[in-house]
Amino acid sequence: MKPMTELTGNNLQECLALLEAGRCSSVELVQQLTAAIRARDGKIAAFTALDVEYALAQARQADEARRSGKQGELLGVPLAIKDVINVAGQPCTCASKILAGYISPYDATAVARLREQGAVFLGRTNMDEFAMGSSTENSAYGPTRNPWNTDRVPGGSSGGSAAAVAADETIAALGSDTGGSVRQPASFCGCVGLKPSYGRISRYGLTAFASSLDQIGPLTKSVRDSALLLRVMAGRDRMDSTSADAPVPDYTAALGNDLHGMRIGLPKEYFISGMDADVEKCIQAAVKQCEKLGAAIVDVSLPMTPHAVAVYYIIACAEASANLARFDGVRYGLRTSGAADPFEMYCRTREEGFGPEVKRRIILGTYVLSSGYYDAYYIRAQKVRALIRRDFEVVFDGRCEALLAPVAPTAAYRLGERIDNPLQMYLGDIFTIPANLAGICALSVPCGFTPSGLPVGLQVLGPAFREDTVLRIGHAYEQASDWHRRRPHLESFS
Questions:
Q1: What is the Cα–Cα distance from 25 to 56, expressed in whole angstroms?
Q2: 125-159 burial, b for 16+ CB within 10 Å, e for fewer?
Q3: Nearest by Cα to 250 from 225, 226, 216, 227
Q4: Among 141, 92, 87, 138, CA closest to 115
Q5: What are phi and psi of 172, to 5 degrees?
Q6: What is this structure's pTM?
Q7: Region at 262 (left for phi over 0; alpha for psi -120 to 50; beta for the rest)
Q8: Coil, helix or strand for 195?
Q9: Which ranges of 154-250 would DSSP assign to H, the alpha helix?
Q10: What does the pLDDT profile of the chain (494 residues) look like in tens digits?
Q11: 417 CB-contact burial (10 Å; exposed 0-12 / middle 13-18 / buried 19+)
């Protein structure tokens, strides 16, 4: 059997190979990962809940299934799930006081499909409350820290999932991406993060933040791992009318080691004067590497990009205002005590249950939907959103097959640095938001480090439902570099 550090450091495909060869068991994987969590998570705080007995019971079932000859694409592999995605029998608090004590009675469709293929669920990962944030500091459980430097944020809102993957506390994880919440943490923590096209993965069981923007996506240690998880989760679901009735290809079959014959665009609006010079240096080096792999790099323009942040925060906040109205203390979660009447109970429950960032966005969303402002803000934002989508359609219609860009203007910043400056925090999402507004797919893959040792991510953007293209590009680049193989100094946590 392999020693602990080798087991916990394996990616998903490597774990499957070990399990299939009988060189380790699922129980051993769970035991070693939970030991790693206990040793490291006191400093990182990637998890909000861990049910070791439940995970071990699943692992024993997986081992027995494998001994009896049963098959499963993920049989016995432990995964962690962001605390906004429902797993039957586990908490789903969305890192909010208002859902304290809530236990999910059902599996999200994405989780159910992973379960059908034998995946084991370790526990719940920390996040910005209701996925509203870019640093995982807006959590009722306290902030998660970046394993590469615990004075830095891991990104958000899926920061717990990204940190758990980077710290070898899980083999892979699920997150959700509404405006960059999978890709930006992946970039900050040096792992792979995929935002599928809108509708590619069912949103049933994903607690809604902004329904027209949300997508479940994997955070992994390799591009091939993301391709496998996407193949398992993708496809039409009758429980989600927005899920796409489109063929699901074998994404792993599309992976190769070169980019010959591909035309890849470089959008000038994603290389702005405010971008950190060390980040830009890493991105430009990655672009040159893709060119060496055979890709033809072409300059393109997405002129509506500067309006994306404003459009996003109007639409996302409006949808959040509507979606979060259900959390009122009547049906589930927190209910304040001592209220004189139902209206006071409703108001006090929401006041006490929601954190400041969630309240800010609910208020903004309610304002833009209010009488006299709906046309001026919400309708106008939807019109500009259509223009942003049109920008991508024009570029992908014959000009190029995909785009290369930074994930974020900077590497991970210090804890507390932006928490009191929401506008500065929002502007950090400028390179990730457009993909959500347009409904296209995008991937973050490690492409280097700053001189201070912080990871940087390369973003690959592709047309809607062409995840095979972005995965092919990401995998070819990944195989020509070793950035994804580098790990934080995990011994310092023990």
A1: 11
A2: bbbbbbbbbbbbbbbbbebbbbbbbbebbbbbbbb
A3: 227
A4: 87
A5: -160, 175
A6: 0.97
A7: beta
A8: strand
A9: 159-166, 183-189, 223-233
A10: 455 457 999 999 999 999 999 999 999 999 999 999 999 999 999 999 999 999 999 999 999 999 999 999 999 999 999 999 999 999 999 999 999 999 999 999 999 999 999 999 999 999 999 999 999 999 999 999 999 999 999 999 999 999 999 999 999 999 999 999 999 999 999 999 999 999 999 999 999 999 999 999 999 999 999 999 999 999 999 999 999 999 999 999 989 889 999 999 999 999 988 899 999 999 999 999 999 999 999 999 999 999 999 999 999 999 999 999 999 999 888 999 889 999 999 999 999 999 999 999 999 999 999 988 999 999 999 999 999 999 999 999 989 999 999 999 999 999 999 999 988 899 999 999 999 999 999 999 999 999 999 999 999 999 999 999 999 999 999 999 999 999 998 877 76
A11: middle
Per DSSP, the residues of 60-125 read HHHHHHHHTT---TTTT-EEEEETTB--TTSB--TT-GGGTT-B-SS--HHHHHHHHTT-EEEEEE
Q: CA of 113: how far to CAs of 121, 171, 326, 360, 369, in Å?
A: 12, 17, 27, 35, 36
- For residue 265, give the H/E element and its range: strand 263-267
Write the DSSP symbol of residue 251. G
- Whether residue 181 is preceded by a cis peptide bond, meaning omega within 30 degrees of 0, is no
Sign of CA dihedral 282, 284, 290, 291: negative
Helix, strand, coil percent content, the chain, rounded in steps of 5: 45, 15, 40
What single-letter amino acid sits at 164? A
| SS3 label, residue 387 | helix
CB neighbourhood size of 247 (10 A)? 9
| Residue 253, CB-side half-sphere exposure with 13 Å CA sphere | 4
Active site residues: 82, 157, 181
Report residue 351: phi and psi, to 5°: -65, -45
The answer to whether 191 and 168 have CB atoms below 8 angstroms apart is no
Tokens at 401, concatenated:
């097959």
Calculate Rg over the CA atoms of the chain.
Answer: 21
Facing residues of 146 across strands? 149
Residue given tokens 């991970």 in the structure block: 412
Q: How far apart are CA 436 and CA 303, in angstroms?
A: 17
Q: Helix crossing, 159-166 with 26-44: angle to 10°?
A: 120
Are 189 and 471 in contact, with CB atoms under 8 Å apart? no
